């Protein structure tokens, strides 16, 4: 019982991290038909910047803020320099964002040094407590809570505010939104920045969770984000959450029972979804899956 | 065939270059330099196979390393388990190419119906699976320790290896050039330019894509075979994403859809890799040489989507058109 509970908690925490990464990706794709292969790079930048600021200030929440700001700034730069010149050309988008991913990863090594860095959760989140005979690691619980808060916040903005309405309409049919006199480019820039900030936040939360960060986490976790987006369906926020938790749980359980197949299972899951239901398991109706 | 004269000139130029390169090991006997040039030839072959997909058919694959790796492992496993004779070498090559053909056929049938984003991701996932499989199947592949094997004595001599790689490069280059100029190649270019229109002209797109992905896979596997033979050691890094990325950089910077471009790109990148890494003692920034290439690559994608070879070709064509236009103008003036 203890084991199953702890694996589930672990899986949910990993899933929440995947969700933070995948949420931006799925909205960007749904809204602007751009698949950003550099998204994982923002995750890594968030992790390193957050840990650096956290180390400087000694305050965990200042670190979170730093990671979010880094994500916003890098997101704006990415959108302006990299994505804007290649709207509408899928092949060029894939090529250029992948190149940017390389540059981001290497720049990270230049700025923060090529070595991996250790990260610790703050004291009040460190350690664990027990209920009955079940041990709960505080930091994992914290990640799950953060994930729920972010999901609730994003869902609220998407469903209850005017901007959310525009974004949702843009996902459905961006030409129509544009015809109604709304500057969809500006909306897209905002979504891109927010998505990047979520990825950066995910990266920072990941750092104390894994205990150590290195520049290549961007590529490694970027792949998971894609798996999540594909399984959840492009453009669907709640789909991404479900898929992220699914992938996180599969990852946690497989890593315990059959560690050699942990990565392969998720890859196979994605391959199966792509082959039999390319629009994803929880896809939004009306979104073109072109 | 009417353009025979034109085609012949470029063919002669390429052949001349090939012959010049063939003399190199006899004049310039620097072992590490020869090794570098062998690597350039091998990655030239690999990048050409990538160009068939990216440049001629418009398919972006992120899993091309899997064919390279299958080729490398195919020949290595056969040679490691048997005597290093010519017979087993040839058997190993055939096994490698056969395996690559089967795998690329299955992978192609499964994935090529998907749209570009999905295809790129699924190939990435497939190559990832091969990497994991190579690490886990220790009895067959040696896991992350890799495999050490011997090859027939004849090819242990670096000059002979050099000539083998060069001849392979030249033969593959001319065969692929012939292929891309054939009706099949024309259909592929049509698919790249506009899938719907090609379809409405009555061509079934899917079989063409499968054919080219099998050809590309087999050529890539041959590159892997040569790679394994040239270092006589192999480990799981041949399946890494970096291998695919290298091919991508070489093809894009050299020039997509030109075949000669990927070879130029391979030369540039392998050379830069070699020398910039050596410069890392001077300044640590050179250790991060990939940044430089990443930036060049991004600029190329935005401003020179044709790459080096394509841009030169374009300039040449423009100048020729201008000349022709001038001649025509003069003719008109004389006539009036």
From TrEMBL, chain A:
* Subcellular localization(s) per the UniProt record: Cell membrane
Keywords, in A-Z order:
Amino-acid transport, Cell membrane, Membrane, Transmembrane, Transmembrane helix, Transport
Q: How would you describe this protein's topology in the membrane?
A: Multi-pass membrane protein
Q: Which residues form a coiled coil?
A: none
Q: Which GO terms describe its biological process?
A: amino acid transport
The main place the protein resides is membrane
GO MF annotation terms: transmembrane transporter activity
Segments spanning the bilayer are: 12-30, 37-54, 60-82, 94-112, 139-158, 186-209, 221-249, 256-276
Question: Matching Pfam families, A to Z?
Answer: BPD_transp_2 (PF02653)
Family to which this protein belongs: Belongs to the binding-protein-dependent transport system permease family. LivHM subfamily.
Record keywords: Chaperone included?
no
Please give the GO cellular component terms listed in this UniProt entry.
plasma membrane
Presence of the UniProt keyword Mitochondrion in the record: no
Q: What is this protein called?
A: Branched-chain amino acid transport system permease protein
**CDD domains recorded:** TM_PBP1_LivH_like
TrEMBL record, chain B:
CDD domains listed in its UniProt record: TM_PBP1_LivM_like
Membrane association type: Multi-pass membrane protein
PROSITE patterns from the xrefs? PROKAR_LIPOPROTEIN (PS51257)
| Alphabetized Pfam families for the sequence | BPD_transp_2 (PF02653)
TM ranges = 12-28, 59-79, 86-110, 116-134, 161-179, 210-231, 243-269, 289-312
Location relative to the cell: Cell membrane
Q: Give the keywords, sorted.
A: Cell membrane, Membrane, Transmembrane, Transmembrane helix
Q: Its GO CC terms? A: plasma membrane
Q: Name one GO molecular function term.
A: branched-chain amino acid transmembrane transporter activity
User: What is the name of the protein in this document?
Assistant: Branched-chain amino acid transport system permease protein
What organism does the UniProt record list as the source? Answer: Salirhabdus euzebyi
């Amino acid at each position: 019982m203890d084991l199953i509970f702890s694996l589930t908690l672990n899986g949910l925490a990993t899933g929440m991290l995947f969700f933070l990464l995948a949420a931006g990706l799925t909205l960007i794709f749904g809204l602007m038909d751009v698949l950003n292969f550099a998204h994982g790079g923002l995750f890594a930048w968030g992790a390193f910047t957050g840990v650096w600021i956290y180390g400087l200030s000694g305050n965990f929440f200042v670190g979170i803020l730093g990671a979010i700001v880094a994500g916003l700034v890098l997101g704006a730069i990415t959108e302006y320099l990299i994505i804007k010149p290649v709207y509408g050309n899928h092949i060029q988008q894939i090529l250029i964002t992948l190149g940017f991913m390389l540059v981001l990863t290497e720049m990270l090594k230049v700025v923060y040094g090529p070595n991996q860095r250790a990260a610790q959760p703050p004291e009040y989140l460190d350690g664990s407590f027990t209920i009955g005979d079940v041990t709960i690691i505080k930091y994992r619980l914290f990640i799950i809570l953060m994930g729920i808060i972010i999901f609730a916040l994003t869902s609220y903005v998407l469903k209850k505010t005017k901007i959310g309405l525009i974004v949702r309409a843009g996902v459905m049919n961006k030409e129509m939104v544009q015809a109604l006199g709304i500057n969809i480019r500006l909306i897209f820039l905002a979504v891109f920045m927010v998505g990047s900030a979520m990825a950066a936040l995910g990266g920072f939360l990941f750092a104390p969770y894994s205990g150590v960060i290195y520049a290549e986490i961007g590529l490694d976790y970027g792949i998971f984000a894609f798996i999540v987006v594909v399984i959840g369906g492009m453009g669907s926020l709640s789909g991404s959450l479900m898929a992220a938790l699914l992938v996180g749980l599969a990852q946690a359980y497989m890593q315990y029972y059959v560690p050699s197949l942990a990565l392969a299972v998720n890859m196979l899951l994605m391959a199966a979804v792509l082959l039999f239901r390319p629009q994803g398991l929880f896809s939004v109706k009306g979104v073109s899956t072109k | 065939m009417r353009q025979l004269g034109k085609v012949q000139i470029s063919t002669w130029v390429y052949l001349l270059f090939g012959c010049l390169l063939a003399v190199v090991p006899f004049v310039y006997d620097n072992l590490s330099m020869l090794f570098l040039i062998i690597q350039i030839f091998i990655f030239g072959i690999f990048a050409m196979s990538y160009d068939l997909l990216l440049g001629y058919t418009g398919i972006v694959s992120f899993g091309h390393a899997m064919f390279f790796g299958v080729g490398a492992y195919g020949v290595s496993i056969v040679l490691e388990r048997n005597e290093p004779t010519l017979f087993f070498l040839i058997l190993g090559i055939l096994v490698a190419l056969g395996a690559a053909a089967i795998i690329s056929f299955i992978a192609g049938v499964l994935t090529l119906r998907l749209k570009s984003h999905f295809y790129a991701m699924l190939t990435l996932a497939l190559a990832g699976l091969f990497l994991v499989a190579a690490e886990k199947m220790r009895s067959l592949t040696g896991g992350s320790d890799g495999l050490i094997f011997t090859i027939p004595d004849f090819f242990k001599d670096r000059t002979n290896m050099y000539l083998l790689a060069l001849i392979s490069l030249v033969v593959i280059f001319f065969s692929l050039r012939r292929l891309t100029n054939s009706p099949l190649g024309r259909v592929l270019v049509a698919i790249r330019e506009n899938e719907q229109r090609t379809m409405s002209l009555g061509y079934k797109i899917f079989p063409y894509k499968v054919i080219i992905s099998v050809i590309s896979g087999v050529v890539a596997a041959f590159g892997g075979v040569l790679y394994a033979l040239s270092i006589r050691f192999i480990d799981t890094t041949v399946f890494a994403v970096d291998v695919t990325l290298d091919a991508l950089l070489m093809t894009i910077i050299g020039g997509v859809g030109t075949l000669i471009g990927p070879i130029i790109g391979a030369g540039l990148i392998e050379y830069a890799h070699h020398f910039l890494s050596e410069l890392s003692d001077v300044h640590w920034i050179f250790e991060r040489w990939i940044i430089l290439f990443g930036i060049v690559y991004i600029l190329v994608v935005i401003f020179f989507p044709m790459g080096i070879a394509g841009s030169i070709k374009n300039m040449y064509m423009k100048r020729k058109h201008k000349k022709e236009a001038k001649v025509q103008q003069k003719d008109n003036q004389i006539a009036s």
